[in-house]
Design goal:
Largest sheet: 9 strands, mixed
Distance between the termini: 33 Å
CATH topology of the largest domain: Aminopeptidase
Bound molecules: manganese (II) ion
Shape: globular
Strand order of the largest sheet: 1-2-3-13-4-14-20-16-18
Number of helices: 11
Number of domains: 2
CATH architecture of the largest domain: 3-Layer(aba) Sandwich
Radius of gyration: 23 Å
Length: 460
């Protein structure tokens, strides 16, 4: 009898020993990337270095583009766009894979340092959608930059080296937490309580002894004073490393996998693309977690400028070339999907939920409560992507974020769709999304690499 059902089964079931080896090797390299790239700036540094090693040139230093040329644009050290010029005219459309490098975290406030009753603290303002209670009582590191008024820049990373100190946000002991435990989870820890403990030794000054001791240490180490916090971007992130998870080592547990898992896999895919028909574009965005605004977010026109440069330097200066190019382009919005968690299965609609280890999640639409705010991919485009994946035997599943009335979310998909590009969300499922430690499947990670590569390579 003909099997007409869309059967769902774990990708591991059909994985050969040899494939397993490739999957585990790739995941080790991904883990290395994660440990070097906890923030968007660190990820940009890592990505640009790899791009340059692989023959990509800064587009600002390139006058003329020909088929096969590889270029990138570094947008203020916080987002990157990279391209390989295809055989076809750029105006015939691009194959774009777009991910984001920013992840939920705690940013330091502009005036962060104070002391209270013998302790020095740094105030934070959380970035993105977090469950605040998850950020207390865990080891935290500080990453980022401090720029002095004269432009001199200090790159900071403290809490990663074994000999570095770490920081933490204290929480109430259970013995005295009767009132706190009665509160709603979202109110149990308030935003202002997400304050980092950073010192306890008094200096010899007359007042603010603890604070001034910290200022002395910072001055000695980085040559900065308190005012320099004003022109800094310091991000508080979990101090623990990415690790293999499970007795079978089938998963990766790490901070920031939303969305560095799609960033890394699409980067690797781009590096392995050979003589593409369509121009391949890999974009790594910033600010997705807070709405994609700002000049490093996808709502800005900097990406348009990059594509405009590709056109111009390829000799295409016709009126409306940019708009036409976007209208003929196709994009995989490479962002993570919510995986069904058996411990919280009630929020997911089982047949439409992303399952860990089942490959790429194709998410036709996101949005919340009635698809509000969603870019809903066209059936014709869904068919094209299916065709690419099915021809290349790439495991994929068609999913939704969760049950209809439960909640929702968004990605950068709608931004490119608004320019006329065909876009569908296509990433991998994650457990504990936005938590300090997120979980993915190594099978899915490797599948994402294969899927993005197949898409770049496709001539559709
Ligand atoms: Mn994301
Ligand atoms: Mn997210």
């Amino acid at each position: 009898m003909k099997n007409l059902e869309n059967e769902r089964k774990s990708g591991w079931e059909n994985t050969t020993e040899k494939e397993k080896e490739s999957i585990f090797k790739f995941s080790d390299e991904y883990i290395y990337f994660l440990n070097k790239s906890k923030t968007e700036r660190e990820a940009v540094r890592f990505i640009v270095e790899i791009l340059e090693k692989n023959g990509f040139k800064n587009i600002e230093n390139v006058q003329k583009l020909n088929t096969g040329d590889k270029v990138y644009y570094n947008n203020r050290e916080k987002s990157v766009y990279a391209a390989i010029i295809g055989k076809e005219n750029i105006e015939n459309g691009l194959n774009i894979v777009g991910s984001h490098l920013d992840s939920p975290r705690l940013d330091l406030k502009p005036n962060p340092l104070y002391e209270d009753t013998g302790f020095a603290y740094l105030k934070t303002h959380y970035y993105g959608g977090i469950k605040k209670y998850q950020w207390t009582a865990i080891p935290l590191a500080i990453h980022g930059v401090i720029v002095k008024a004269n432009g001199e820049k200090q790159v900071i990373s403290i809490g990663e080296d074994e000999n570095d100190p770490i920081f933490t946000i204290t929480d109430l002991l259970p013995h005295l937490a009767i009132e706190q435990m009665d509160k709603k989870l979202k109110e149990a820890i308030n935003g202002e309580a997400l304050t980092l403990l950073v010192g306890n030794i008094p200096s010899e000054e007359d007042k603010d002894k603890i604070k001034s001791n910290i200022l002395n240490i910072l001055n000695e180490k980085y040559g900065i004073d308190e005012k320099d916090f004003i022109s800094s971007e310091l991000e508080v992130v979990p101090a623990f490393n990415a690790r293999s998870l499970g007795f079978d080592k089938s998963m990766v547990a790490a901070y920031g996998q939303d969305d560095k898992v799609c960033a890394y896999t699409s980067l690797r895919a781009l590096l392995d693309v050979e003589n593409p028909e369509k121009t391949s574009v890999c974009l790594f965005s910033d600010k997705e977690e807070i709405g994609s605004m700002g000049n490093t977010g996808m709502e800005s026109h900097v990406f348009d400028m990059f594509i405009g440069e590709l056109l111009e330097k390829s000799g295409v200066n016709t009126f409306n070339a940019l708009a036409r190019t976007f209208c003929k382009s196709q994009m995989l919005s490479a962002d993570v999907d919510a995986a069904l968690d058996p411990l919280y299965a009630s929020v997911s609609d089982r047949p439409n939920a992303g399952l860990l280890g089942h490959g790429m999640a194709l998410v036709k639409y996101t949005g919340a409560r009635g698809k509000s705010g969603a870019s809903d991919a066209n059936a014709e485009f869904m068919a094209k992507i299916r065709n690419v994946f099915e021809n290349e035997k790439i495991d994929y599943q068609a999913t939704e974020l969760g049950k209809v009335d439960i909640g929702g979310g968004g990605t950068i998909a709608y931004i490119l769709a608004n320019k006329g590009t065909d876009v569908v969300d296509c990433g991998i499922p994650v457990l504990s999304m936005h938590a300090p430690y997120e979980v993915t499947s190594k099978f899915d990670i490797y599948t994402a690499y294969k899927a993005y590569k197949a898409f770049f390579q496709s001539a559709m």
